[in-house]
Write a structure and sequence with these properties.
mainly alpha; flat; 3 helices; 90 residues
Length: 90
């Protein structure tokens, strides 16, 4: 498997984890931001030209990176604190 696909999979898993952590803490800003950005990008991808689709996904990409950073930093904070990682993260 190409290294790019591995990194995309790691980013996707960390992003999903970040959204789940934010939802579990009732911090709805991140899930709403990610959902709105992805929903808008997919909507423009369906109804607009390829150039607009590319712009929409470029605008939505920081939301995905933010969610992945939240997921990765949450996992890192569990590791540094020595506390047990929840079973959903193992």
């Amino acid at each position: 498997m190409d290294a790019v696909y591995v990194l995309i999979a790691v980013l996707a898993l960390a992003g999903i984890g970040g959204v789940l952590v934010a939802a579990a803490r009732c911090a709805w800003e991140l899930p709403l931001y990610v959902g709105g950005a992805l929903g808008g990008a997919v909507l423009y991808g369906v109804v607009a030209s390829p150039w607009i689709e590319g712009k929409a996904f470029a605008i939505a990409s920081p939301a995905l990176l933010l969610a992945a950073a939240v997921g990765a930093l949450t996992r890192l904070s569990f590791a540094l604190a020595g506390s047990k990682v929840p079973s959903s993260w193992a």
